[in-house]
């Protein structure tokens, strides 16, 4: 059940769940959600939010600043596109072929440090990029899930790479992982953090002390990657 309230000019989404305390999450798009117990008193919610106003304003200001840095990527020669934390320039190929290692013609390829895209496919560039990012994400997951499964003590039955909007990943009930194709734009250490974070959720749904202990056991410097994502997350898009 969700409601909205406005306190000191900021709009909040109220999300009631089975939890015992009040909490705040600020989404990447700047929406602020107040997570509350099912029977939380509206007055208590309001005074809680009120006491956090300064902190929330600071966070929102910071968010809008980092989001402003988000690059609008045009599909023109010279434009940089991210892959595993590095930017590669796009090169439009006209009157030619883009051929992969197996000698098969394709529309988009990362080759000799450039993304090569057939000029005639320019109108469908975004679609080609998403398809390419999906494939890369799948390849990374195929290699990396087995690497962490034993260390964390979980079994990943299946994974899917899709568009999760503002989220990086989520886990389903039956040992399935859902991953955003945008994750493969981040440095591999950050990608691993997202993966381990999600796999740790298979043991523990919430962000409890225990949960973070599991994450830090596998990725000792995870906080660094968490901060990197907060600061650069908006850039991981096309
Ligand atoms: Zn989480």
Structure summary:
This protein is of the alpha/beta class and 238 residues long. 37% of the residues lie in helices and 26% in strands.
How much of the sequence is in beta strands? 25-35%
Total strand segments:
13
- Overall body shape: globular
* SSE succession: EEEEHHEEEEEEHEEEHHH
Number of domains: 3
Largest sheet: 4 strands, mixed
State the CATH topology of the largest domain.
Zincin-like
Low-pLDDT sequence parts: none
| Bound compounds | zinc ion
CATH homologous superfamily label of the largest domain = Metalloproteases ("zincins"), catalytic domain
Tell me the radius of gyration: 21 Å
Strand order of the largest sheet: 1-2-4-3
**Class of the largest domain, according to the CATH hierarchy?**
Alpha Beta
Indicate the topology.
Blueprint: E1 2-7, E2 10-17, E3 23-26, E4 32-37, H1 42-51, H2 53-68, E5 80-83, E6 86-93, E7 98-99, E8 105-106, E9 108-111, E10 114-118, H3 125-152, E11 158-162, E12 169-171, E13 176-180, H4 188-201, H5 209-218, H6 222-232
Parallel strand pairs: 2-4, 6-10, 11-13
Antiparallel strand pairs: 1-2, 3-4, 5-6, 7-8, 9-10, 12-13
Helix pairs in contact: 3-4, 4-5
Residues 197, 201, 207 line the site of zinc ion (ZN).
């Amino acid at each position: 059940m969700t409601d909205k309230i406005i306190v000191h000019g900021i709009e909040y989404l109220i999300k009631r769940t089975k939890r015992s305390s009040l909490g705040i999450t600020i989404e990447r798009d700047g929406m602020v959600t107040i997570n509350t117990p099912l029977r939380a008193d509206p007055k208590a919610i309001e005074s809680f939010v009120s006491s956090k106003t300064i902190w929330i304003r600071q966070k929102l200001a910071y968010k809008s600043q980092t989001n402003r840095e988000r690059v609008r990527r045009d599909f023109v020669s010279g434009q940089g596109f991210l892959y595993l934390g590095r930017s590669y320039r796009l090169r439009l190929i006209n009157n030619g072929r883009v051929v992969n290692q197996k000698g098969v013609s394709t529309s988009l390829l990362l080759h000799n440090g450039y993304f090569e895209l057939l000029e005639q496919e320019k109108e469908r560039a975004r679609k080609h990029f998403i398809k390419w990012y999906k494939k890369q994400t799948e390849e990374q997951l195929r290699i990396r899930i087995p690497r962490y499964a034993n260390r964390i003590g979980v079994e990943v039955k299946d994974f899917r790479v899709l568009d999760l909007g503002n989220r990086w990943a989520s886990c389903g009930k039956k040992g399935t992982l859902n991953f955003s194709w945008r994750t493969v734009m981040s440095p591999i250490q950050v990608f691993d953090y997202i993966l381990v974070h999600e796999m740790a959720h298979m043991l523990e749904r919430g962000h409890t002390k225990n949960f973070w202990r599991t994450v830090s056991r596998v990725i000792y410097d995870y906080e660094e990657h968490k901060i990197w994502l907060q600061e650069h997350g908006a850039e991981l898009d096309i």
